[in-house]
Amino acid sequence: MKGLGRNEPCWCESGMKYKKCHLDRDRQAKENPWDAVEANKKAFQQKKCWAKDVGLGACEGSIIKAHTVSRGPNLSKIAKNGNVIRYGANVADLIKTSGKITASEIGIRNASVFNGFCATHDRNLFSCIENEPFVGRPDQCLTVAYRTLSREIYGKDASSHLKETLRGADKGLNELAQIRLQSQLMEIDKGVEAAKRELRKTHDTLTQAMVQGHHDVLSSLVLEFDGTLPMMFAGAWSPFTDFFGNELQVPYVDSFLEQVFFSSFAGNGNSFICISWIDIVDAPGRTIADQISGLPQKKQGSACLQFVVKHVENVFFDPNWFEAQSTAQRKHLDSLAASGIDEMGSPPIAPINLNLDFNLPEGASSVFIGSPSSS
Question: What is the pLDDT of residue 375?
Fold first, then answer.
């Protein structure tokens, strides 16, 4: 920074002059961290229907709070007094706990919601998973993947504000700390923008499949369990590693990563977990599905539980089940959840322990749908 003129562009790439930005930043008063919380809340309150003008019919009605994990069919089955448990990883939670991820209760009316669809599209597009029992039909697998991915892009769009919101968080810090923070923000921003490009590409593919009724664009593994699973989830991510931690795909500047989709459903005395991926050669999702289906049925529930806690924020637990877990079990779940929170986008590295018994229903069947090697 030495030798940088007062009227020259600031080194942090804010677009402002140095004198209006980082000059004497170390002597400036620190910003209130709760300002970032308020900015985060506003970003996640933006309303937009992801099905508008894409060939899925006209929007009607206001934008509503859409549930990525269905409230009536799923969350209500594991709730205690209308509440479920989830790991808090938003800005407000992390500030309250000094960066430590913790588990707390949330009402099922507010769990897994986003302002992503108008009332008409929410009702019409998702009827097959909201009003019909999940049985693993291709249209149900596509529909839940489409809704889940819409939520993921919504979250990435909301996160785009972080670089500018936190740009002043280095006030009162020395020059080295300022450089570190600004470098981190630049890397986070690059990661968010790259993820948005990848997710939008896949979302376009799923949208066209929804429009044309091409349910075979996805392949899926549907696992059935005897009994109600104590966790409900819906998530999509670009896996860098497989179930055992082996490399699957590597991000490059001009490359697009493939996603895998995980969702769970509660039935009448049984439960399902659906793992889906776009049906291409050597799809990372297929590798993961093969690995999980190859496990003993009594370990498949534990495998999915640990895998989604490690990679997905949108996971909710039965409070009675969660509170009954031993210290070792809770500690392991905590470590998996914490491993997935990395602003720099590094893949989670916490190991999965299939020797831990989480008292889950045993697998009853597994069926591949829409894959050339279906069984």
Answer: 39
**Do residues 73 and 130 make contact, with C-beta atoms less than 8 angstroms apart?**
yes
Cβ 311 vs Cβ 266: under 8 Å:
no
Distance of CA 49 to the CA centre of its chain: 19
Q: Which tokens is 37 given?
A: 């919380």
As a whole number of angstroms, the distance between CA 52 and CA 316 comes to 29
- Contact (CB, 8 A) for 134 and 276: no
| E-only strand ranges, 201-256 | 218-226, 231-237
User: What angle, 0 to 180 degrees and rounded to 10, lies between the N-to-C axes of helices 34-43 and 138-159?
Assistant: 140
271, 264 Cβ separation under 8 angstroms:
yes
> In this predicted structure, what is the pLDDT of residue 157?
85
Angle between helices 284-293 and 297-311 (to 10 degrees): 140
User: For each successive 10 residues of the chain (375 residues), what is the average pLDDT?
Assistant: 85 91 91 70 84 96 93 95 87 55 91 94 96 96 97 86 81 92 86 86 96 95 96 95 90 79 96 96 95 96 96 95 95 89 64 93 93 46
The per-residue pLDDT for 153 is 92
Residues 6+ positions from 197 with CB-CB distance below 8 Å: 256
2: left (phi over 0), alpha (psi -120 to 50) or beta: beta
Query: Which residues on adjacent β-strands are paired with residue 366?
Result: 223
Give the model's pLDDT for residue 374: 39
Among candidate residues 158, 55, 53, the one with its CA nearest the CA of residue 113: 158
282 Cβ contact partners less than 8 Å away, ≥ 6 residues apart: none
How distant, in Å, are the alpha carbons of 126, 170, 260, 300, 339 from that of 342?
32, 19, 19, 27, 7
Q: Which residues partner with 85 through β-bridges?
A: 105, 317
Q: Integer distance in angstroms from the first to the last C-alpha of the chain?
A: 63
User: Cα separation of 289 and 58, whole Å?
Assistant: 36
Residue 72 DSSP symbol:
I
**Cα separation, 76 vs 277, whole angstroms:** 27
Q: How far apart are CA 206 and CA 216, in angstroms?
A: 10
Distance CA 101, CA 94 (A): 6
